[in-house]
Amino acid sequence: MNPVRIAPSILSADFARLGDEVRAIDAAGADWIHVDVMDGHFVPNISFGPAVMKSVRGMTTKPFDVHLMISPVDAYLDAFAEAGADTITVHVEAGPHIHRSLQHIKVLGKRAGVVLCPGTPAKMLDYLIDMVDLVLVMSVNPGFGGQQFIPSQLKKIAAIRKMIDASGRAIDLEVDGGIDPDTAARCIDAGADALVAGTAVFKDGPHGYAANIAALRGQ
Ligand SMILES: O=C(CO)[C@H](O)[C@H](O)COP(=O)(O)O
Ligand SMILES: [Fe+2]
């Protein structure tokens, strides 16, 4: 398994200083930059779109890990690829043709990720696992930062770890929502190798970013 990768979610950044915030989490040791895109339809919140993401893409060379909470999503995939996404992750719950969406992401030359909401079973991955580069398990209901971790998702993480190992493919297993040093350790024990964190990274302002990221690694 890979050493854990930490992906701070810029949803919790100061949007008035977004470029500086991306530079700051890069300098503080972020492995990936997690970009939460919310459409006010699939989830009850609106964040930002590809133009805002593109405007900060040049602030770091770290991979952009783009979590699309958009339904329907297919019409937006090209725009996020063009705006500098490295991994594009789409919800199985967001439309009837998840397989087509994942195929399209691969055609765009990007890493394809699939994400499951807390109420969605791991078996939804049975016919997708052979085509994805990343599985994202939501440990909160998507739409907002600062929510409480849902412990039932640990069992799902462990089940997906087995599916990934059985596949023989290199697939990242990422968890998103309510991650702090305690829940991070529990997710890693269950088999996660990438963690998204918004509140736990950004809560103290820029002087705390490096220590907060290190704490999620158990350091
Ligand atoms: O996808 C998300 C919400 O839908 C965010 O990535 C997630 O909530 C991160 O925020 P926090 O660490 O504060 O829970
Ligand atoms: Fe997210």
Automatic annotation (TrEMBL):
Q: Which residues bind substrate?
A: S9, H67, G143, F144, G145, G146, D176, G177, G178, G198, T199
Name of the gene: rpe
Q: Does the keyword Transmembrane apply?
A: no
Keyword vocabulary terms for this entry: Carbohydrate metabolism, Cobalt, Isomerase, Manganese, Metal-binding, Zinc
Judging by the UniProt lineage, the source's domain of life is Bacteria
The record's similarity note reads:
Belongs to the ribulose-phosphate 3-epimerase family.
**Reactions catalysed:** D-ribulose 5-phosphate = D-xylulose 5-phosphate
Name of protein: Ribulose-phosphate 3-epimerase
User: GO CC annotations?
Assistant: cytoplasm
